[in-house]
Specification:
The complex is a heterodimer of chains A (281) and B (316). In chain A, strand 4 and strand 5 form a beta hairpin. Chain A has a five-stranded parallel beta sheet, sandwiched between helices. Chain A has a two-stranded antiparallel sheet with strand order 4-5. Chain A has a single domain, classed as Thiamin diphosphate (ThDP)-binding fold, Pyr/PP domains (Rossmann fold). Chain A contains nine helices and seven strands; from the N terminus they run ααβααβαβββααβαβα. Chain B has 316 residues and is α/β, with parallel strands linked by helices. Chain B has two domains: 166 residues, Rossmann fold, CATH 3.40.50; 126 residues, 3-Layer(aba) Sandwich (Rossmann fold). In chain B, the strands form three sheets. Chain B has a seven-stranded mixed beta sheet with strand order 3-2-4-5-7-6-12, sandwiched between helices. A five-stranded mixed beta sheet of chain B has the order 9-11-10-13-14, sandwiched between helices. A two-stranded antiparallel ribbon of chain B has the order 1-8. Chain B starts with 7 loop residues before the first strand and ends with a helix. Classes of the chains: A alpha/beta (281), B alpha/beta (316). At the A-B interface, helix 4 and helix 5 of A face helix 4 and helix 6 of B. Chain B: Keywords: Thiamine pyrophosphate. Chain B: Its cofactor is thiamine diphosphate. Chain B: This is Transketolase family protein. Chain B: It holds the Pfam family Transketolase_C.
Chain lengths: 281, 316
Amino acid sequence: MSTTPSIKNTDLEELERIAKRIRYNIVKMIGLAKSGHPGGSLSATDIIVALYFKIMNHDPKNPDKKDRDIFVLSKGHACPALYAVLAELGYFDKEELWKLRKVGALLQGHPSISIPGVEASTGSLGQGFSVAVGMALGCKLDKLNNTVYVLLGDGECQEGQVWEAAMAAHHYKLDNLIGFIDRNKLQIDGCTEDVMSLGDLKEKFKAFGWDVFEIDGHNFQEIIETVNTAKSLKNGKPKMIIANTVKGKGISFMEDKVEFHGKAPSEEELERALKELSEDI
Amino acid sequence: MKYKLGEKKGMRVAYGETLVKLGKEFPNLVVLDADLSGSTKTSMFAKVFPDRFFNVGVAEQNMMGMAAGLARMGKLVFASTFAMFATGRAWEQIRNSIAYPNLNVKIVATHSGITVGEDGATHQMTEDMAIMRCIPNMRVISPTDYYETKSVIEWCARNEGPVYVRMPRRDTETVFASEEDAKFQFGKGRILEEGSDVTIVATGEMVPEAIKALELLKQEGIDAQLISMATIKPIDEDMIVNSTNDLIVSVEDHNIIGGLGSAIGEIIADHGLNKRLLRLGIRDVFGISGSATDLLRYYRLDGESIYRRVVEELRG
């Protein structure tokens, strides 16, 4: 898999179909686990699908290959999306998805490097961002031509460590680092702007020396084109893509609902959700 | 006595010197510091290998995260700052980003314990061994002197996985005659002197003080066994189990809760040993400003105080 600059309509349709399948598996695995974070997994799905199915250079058969592109899920609670994608690509058996969060299962409640394809153990917010900065620096030291991607939550940006990492990425001129903020505007306790206002994230990252882009995080064309632009700017500046998203995206009764941040669907809700998603996948 | 105290030499200087040596041997060795490189002596490495030294500024949490990321990319990472900020400020980053994924990061902290001195309580880290010891995958080492520090740092470079090494700010008397003499054996205590009345187990900068105490005890006719315990985790269980004396005295520049004394207490409890344990250290209080020498006397951790407390315990 490698980056292709031009995007065909058939490719976009294919990505939409994959994303729907991923969402189906996300809701199913959280439903079966009776535990997990559907809202933020669904808002981040399209970004993760675009990265793994269209953008990144990676090989499920050789997950440690030296020049691979790297993805760090700093908002680790969205791991059902990552797990579903990794399973779809063959990093591990799909059956593992249905054992999520169970004793003895491969798939932990938050990402662990013991899971094939997972690059960093994350979930304690803010930490994955620093790890990604360290990785990008390591790649630069080894003169690799790859890209390190990191996905943050918007609520996560309330962590002080995020801004320490942002400062360092600029200081070390890490233009091989591309961040995404899953700007779904909700966190566990409510709207981000009510809990602790984030203000203008675009201006904040600009002030920290980053190139900043703002996109619709559910539009594959925008995601892919913006990453291509970001990658082409070898100007010594790290890149941040603020992706406006909808929490719970793809399932009518979960969309924009704060209660589905960290709550599994009931049996009846699961049935409804799967029915909504099951058309043409 | 086999071991004689030598001139005072800085363990942190030994750290800096050894990093420079290892930098030549390990092209993947990188060093991180958080604006204290002059004090931690990582500046010595920075001077020789500027391209492999990263001063991340006053941002310890990010330093530990970056250390994890660099290690994940195959780097051998040494991350340094004062013990307070390394283990206190960035504890959870060490736990979740470094220890949980079992990454090859060596956290080498200077300015441990009360002997930081004049800077006072906010900079005197007397809880670091406790909070590092309870993290799975983490090994904890408190070197004895300048020479052993060199050997410990070498060991760190040659062995995979996370390690926490603590050392004091002040220069302390050497205990060993050379690096060879000090050859570090991970997980093993070292019997510096045999004795049949009491076993004194000291760690780090407290070993020279314990040696001073031993001389005084000898004059008093008390025959003390002295163990230098550089590895705090995993601690040398056999050495404690096999010690034949009824009284064990632990000596550490650390809170008596959670460090060397606690680790020995756990062994005594686990094995149901019929032994008394006197824990010498900081008795669950915050420190105060003062010179290192005055503070050791104030907290009754200098050689003479250790001697007096052992006598009090034995003779009542």
